[in-house]
């Protein structure tokens, strides 16, 4: 299988997907397996699709929550940050790292 074939299968599975979403899913799915040929089998593709979907949803949820915390933090005076506010910044870095790992193909667990 090549990326074009994978894109066709994704488009069949999710016909309403925009081309950029299909491309994103190709990247996420291909990074989730050792070789892209692991996605040839319909059952394997479905299982990996579901796992990637869960990982992406978890990272998206964490990112949304962290964005809200960072917006609150941005309204405060950085010279008066408390230890809890510093931890908000550290968690934000970790969440960004998790999202990046999805796209670069790191197979380490998302939730730490």
Structural account:
- The protein has one domain.
- The chain contains four helices and no strands.
- It has helices spanning 3-13, 19-31, 42-74, 83-104.
- It is elongated, with a radius of gyration of 18 Å.
- It starts with a helix and ends in an 8-residue tail after the last helix.
Layout of helices and strands:
Elements: H1 3-13, H2 19-31, H3 42-74, H4 83-104
Helix pairs in contact: 1-2, 3-4
Please report which band the strand proportion falls in: under 5%, 5-15%, 15-25%, 25-35%, 35-45% or over 45%.
under 5%
Number of beta strands: 0
Radius of gyration: 18 Å
**Largest beta-sheet characterization:** none
DSSP summary: helix tally: 4
What's the mean pLDDT score? 85
- By helix and strand content, what is the structural category? mainly alpha
What is the helical fraction, as a range of percent? over 70%
Q: Could you give the distance between the termini? A: 33 Å
Number of domains: 1
Pattern of helices and strands? HHHH
Q: Can you tell me the residue ranges where pLDDT is under 50 for at least 5 consecutive residues? A: none
Overall outline: elongated
Search tags:
112 residues, mainly alpha
Summarize the structure.
With 112 residues, this protein is an all-alpha fold.
């Amino acid at each position: 299988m090549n990326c074009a074939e994978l894109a066709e299968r994704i488009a069949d599975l999710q016909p309403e997907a925009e081309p950029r979403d299909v491309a994103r899913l190709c990247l996420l799915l291909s990074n989730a397996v050792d070789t892209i040929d692991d996605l040839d089998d319909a059952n394997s593709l479905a299982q990996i699709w579901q796992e990637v979907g869960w990982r992406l949803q978890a990272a998206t949820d964490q990112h949304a929550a962290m964005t809200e915390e960072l917006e609150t933090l941005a309204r405060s005076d950085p010279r008066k940050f408390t230890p809890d506010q510093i931890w908000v910044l550290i968690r934000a870095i970790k969440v960004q790292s998790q999202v990046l790992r999805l796209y670069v193909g790191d197979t380490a667990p998302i939730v730490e």
